[in-house]
Amino acid sequence: MKKIAILTSGGDAPGMNAAIRAVVRTALHNGIEVMGVERGFYGLINGELKPMDRNSVSDIVHKGGTILKTARLETFKDRAVQEKAAQVLRIFGIEGLVVVGGDGSFHGAAKLSELGINTIGIPGTIDNDLAYTDFTLGFDTAVDTVVEAINKLKDTSASHERCSIVEVMGRHCGDIALYAGIAGGAELVVVPEKPYSVNDVVKLILEGRSRDKHHYLIVMAEGVGGAKEMAEEIEEVTGLETRITVLGHIQRGGSPSSADRILAAKFGHRAVELLMEGKTSRVVGIRDNHIIDMDIHEALAMENVFDEKLLTIAQEIS
Ligand code: ADP
Ligand code: F6P
């Protein structure tokens, strides 16, 4: 293996830069040239590749976002576009490609590997929605960001004796809500994996009133929907003033946590090792605190198993 490339794709996630750094430095350490592809699959088909040296990844380990930029390209689902990408990689003499991204990006990576490109995936998404790995890059930092916001919301909702509903990202996955809800001491966590009833929420508030509790923090995953309807119902039935905060893209930014930086270092290092071992069509991950790798198609076929136990803990200690 003499030359590899790396790209970041889909929604950016804190820790992507640390992963780029780890891949570039591990490759250079082993005498492999690296090219950075800008703007994900979009940049790839347009030949937006640039050589990366040690200095090009200096001072980025602590930065959010991705220095390679990212993009979404719907047409990458077309065979002809995938073939063009494979052709560009061959023209540049690339023998291995590292794709940092989420589920969608991994589908693109799988297609490239089917076209004969040695491809390795690194899970980079705040959503933590990839079943084969316990954690994805960016999740830990996003949870910290939400907890920081919850701390602030609690101050104001306690002072005004209000209910605060905070809507967090995660697409169809409730992990950000669940982890941040526990860490932030929320009264209630609502996730798409578990049906909920507004009546139960109202009941919780009315029961709390009998214990002289007058402020609430509810964390709702965006995949649930209906925050406005829930707020209206709470106000109408309990009379408790209710406000909604949608945290939005703030959750995607910021300096990565130490945990995400370390994970990025391990993932990046292993990805290059796999390419050097001649492996292809694999994704790296972490399970039970061990770095693992598995076939990309198998990984994508796995169904997310929701952590019921953690939700029970959230409910019982709220
Ligand atoms: P993420 O990787 O964070 O899940 P997206 O779902 O937006 O983000 O996917 C990122 C990109 O991956 C898409 O814009 C597209 O270029 C590519 N992609 C997604 N799904 C597929 C697919 N089924 N086949 C090929 N490429 C895909
Ligand atoms: O996949 C990451 C994510 O931030 C999701 O949590 C969210 O639903 C989506 O991307 C938002 O996408 P966009 O940046 O296109 O608004």
Describe the structure in brief.
With 318 residues, the chain is α/β, with parallel strands linked by helices.
Question: How would you describe this protein?
Answer:
- With 318 residues, the chain is α/β, with parallel strands linked by helices.
- The protein has eleven helices and eleven strands.
- Helix 1 (16-29) links the parallel strand 1 (3-8) and strand 2 (33-37).
- Helix 1 packs parallel to helix 9 (258-276).
- The radius of gyration is 22 Å and the shape is elongated.
- The mean pLDDT is 97.
- Bound molecules: adenosine-5'-diphosphate and 6-O-phosphono-beta-D-fructofuranose.
- 6-O-phosphono-beta-D-fructofuranose (F6P) binds next to loops.
Strand order of the largest sheet: 3-2-1-4-5-10-11
Please trace the helix and strand order, writing H or E for each element. Answer: EHEHEHEHEHEHEHEHEHEEHH
Which class do the helix and strand fractions yield? Answer: alpha/beta
Total domain units: 2
Coarse shape: elongated
- The CATH architecture of the largest domain can be given as 3-Layer(aba) Sandwich
The whole-number mean of residue pLDDT values reads: 97
Count every beta strand, where a strand is a DSSP E run of 2 or more residues: 11
Q: Indicate the CATH class of the largest domain.
A: Alpha Beta
Radius of gyration: 22 Å
Which band does the percent of strand residues land in? 15-25%
> Which small-molecule species are bound to the chains here?
adenosine-5'-diphosphate, 6-O-phosphono-beta-D-fructofuranose
**Biggest sheet overview:** 7 strands, mixed
State the end-to-end CA separation. 53 Å
Share of helix, binned: 40-55%
Uncertain parts: none
